[in-house]
Design goal:
There is one protein chain. By secondary structure, the protein is α+β, with helices and mostly antiparallel strands. The chain folds into 2 domains: 3-102, Nucleic acid-binding proteins (OB fold (Dihydrolipoamide Acetyltransferase, E2P)), CATH 2.40.50; 123-168 and 203-464, 2-Layer Sandwich (BirA Bifunctional Protein, domain 2). Helix content is 32%, strand content 22%. Strands 6-10-11-16-15-14-13-12 form an 8-stranded mixed β-sheet. A 5-stranded mixed beta barrel has the order 1-2-3-5-4. The chain has a 3-stranded antiparallel β-sheet with strand order 7-9-8, with no helix packed on it. α4 (125-147) packs across α7 (275-290), α4 (125-147) packs across α14 (449-457) and α6 packs antiparallel against α8 (302-311). The longest helix has 23 residues, at 125-147. The mean pLDDT is 93. The chain binds 4-amino-1,4-dioxobutan-2-aminium adenosine-5'-monophosphate (4AD) and magnesium ion (MG). Magnesium ion (MG) is lined by residues 392, 400, 403.
């Protein structure tokens, strides 16, 4: 017997035929109606049990969470709420689920509770929807780059380079703790840990991707990256996925065009392919908004927000213009920001980013030409000698979703910058080679995958859009 997916049964093409289906019980009502879900869709199939001809013990074992295998006839449903249902003729319990002990009760659980049960939360409607949307977004990303002729490059997870120069790396060692060479004072000699070489988990695949762009033209990475920053915010993870395109001969404005086109494409793909999930997440969000005070409620529904991004160009604003806007903003004058902007040269805090996006421009914003001293060493220095061709894309409710730049392609300028910042040229000799042999202008960016999933699902905590979040408190399983 071939088993069908719930999604296909609900499409109705198999109506009035014998079908088989396997899945997990969401609810069981009146000893008769099973709502069965198999993960193929947010929707359940109603399976009607002939309870008069089913023994008591079996009926008792149909509990929330149990795995079942059913056979019966797919018929048009007489009841309200569903178009089709299965009239069950044969039912097998594949795996029991003790109703008293199963943590995922058929009721609304708090997100905090669900985070503690990351292995079971995917059995709820919300997490099923989020993870299907996440998967569709990942697919759309590969499809976009494939259509544009990019080559997918797998950059290493274990590396000697600190791409961002921010020192937020997890150290990697091949040795047991007691074998790691120690200095005289007993501290670990990190220079000699990974087969005699100092290594860490990658913070970004950019530097390696740049070397590939210098041969393959257009490349992208899509993989896990790691930051040992002790940030307990709803926007930071210690392990997150990043998409990093890198394109030879692109300048900063080409880079902005690419980022905008790319983000639109993947959002549109998801709206077109995950209708039911997005509709569910939208109604979930509406419920959540209702519990907030009026003034804090979002003005736009989820799909309106996503369509807004599709229909409107992102505002392109230089850092210098943004500082002027912030300096003259009411909250700044009333000192309402956690960190007040007084001086050109200050890094923007998320309060500032959100003010620009949510209050001033009311649109996604691309900020560019940042002061050189608040950005990474590899960014192209502008003619003014004090700003670099950096760009950050800021999104409503999220803040920074993309960070990118045109890269410094001039060997001497790059070396001088590295010297100034104390970046080891010997360690990055291979990176410098790209500037010694056939250097050309090139640009790229990094999109934080979970921040994109946050935006598209309307969730508000990054821990809720990755299956097993790694944060300073949680890397348990
Ligand atoms: O701005 P970042 O640090 O830029 C880079 O790593 C560059 N090498 C990218 C490039 O040009 N190829 O990180 C890029 C994006 C951020 O905009 C943010 O969306 C995300 O990665 N990100 C994080 N997401 C979750 N948790 C964290 N701790 C993150 N740190 C950065
Ligand atoms: Mg950044």
């Amino acid at each position: 017997m071939k088993y069908s997916k719930v999604k296909d049964l609900l499409a109705g093409t198999l109506v009035n035929t014998e079908v088989g289906v396997r899945g997990w019980v969401r609810t069981f009502r009146n000893n008769q109606f099973i709502a069965l879900n198999d993960g193929s869709t947010i929707n359940n199939i109603q399976c009607v049990v002939d309870f008069e001809n089913t023994d008591e013990t079996t009926l008792k074992r149909i509990t929330t969470g149990a795995a079942l295998q059913l056979h019966g006839t797919l018929v048009e449903s007489q009841g309200a709420g569903q178009k089709f249902e299965v009239q069950v003729t044969r039912l097998e319990i594949l795996g029991d689920s003790d109703a008293e002990k199963f943590p995922m009760q058929p009721k609304k659980h708090s997100l905090e509770f669900l985070r503690e049960n990351a292995h079971l939360r995917v059995r709820t409607n919300a997490f099923g929807a989020i993870m299907r949307v996440r998967s569709a977004l990942a697919f759309a990303i590969h499809q976009y780059f494939r259509e544009k002729g990019f080559v997918y490059v797998h950059t290493p997870v274990i590396t000697g380079a600190d791409a961002e120069g921010a020192g937020e790396m997890f150290q990697v060692t091949s040795l047991n703790l007691d074998q790691i060479p120690r200095k005289e004072d007993g501290t670990i000699n990190y220079k000699e840990d990974f087969f005699g070489k100092h290594t860490n988990l990658t913070v970004s695949g950019q530097l390696e991707a740049e070397t590939y762009a210098m041969a393959l033209g257009q490349v992208y990475t899509f993989g896990p990256t790691f930051r040992a920053e002790n940030s307990n915010t709803s926007r930071h993870l210690a392990e997150f996925w990043m998409i990093e395109p890198e394109v030879a001969f692109n300048d900063l404005h080409d880079n902005m065009d690419l980022a905008e086109d790319f983000i639109r494409y993947v959002i549109k793909y998801t709206l077109d392919h995950c209708e039911d999930d997005i509709a569910f997440l939208e109604s979930r969000l509406l419920d959540e908004e209702k519990s907030k005070p009026q003034a804090e409620r979002s003005e736009m529904k989820l799909r309106e927000k996503l369509n807004f991004v599709l229909e409107n160009n992102f505002k392109r604003v230089s850092y210098t213009e943004a500082i002027d806007i912030l300096k003259n903003s009411k909250p700044n004058k009333n000192k309402k920001f956690a960190y007040v902007i007084e001086e050109w040269g200050a890094d923007l805090q998320s309060e500032h980013e959100r003010y620009l996006v949510e209050k001033h421009f009311k649109s996604p914003v691309i900020l560019f030409d940042y002061p050189a001293n608040i950005k990474a060493f590899y960014m192209r220095l502008n003619e003014d000698g004090k700003t670099v061709r950096a760009m950050d894309i800021l999104f409503p409710g999220i803040g920074e979703i993309v960070g990118g730049s045109q890269r410094e392609e001039r060997y001497e300028v790059l070396v001088e910058k590295m010297e100034k910042l104390g970046i080891d040229q010997e360690e990055l000799w291979w990176y410098l080679d790209t500037r010694r042999f056939g250097s050309a202008i090139h640009s790229g960016f990094g999109l934080g995958f979970e921040r994109l999933v946050l935006f598209v699902t309307g969730m508000s905590n990054i821990r809720d859009v990755i299956p097993f979040p790694r944060t300073p408190q949680n890397a348990e399983f």
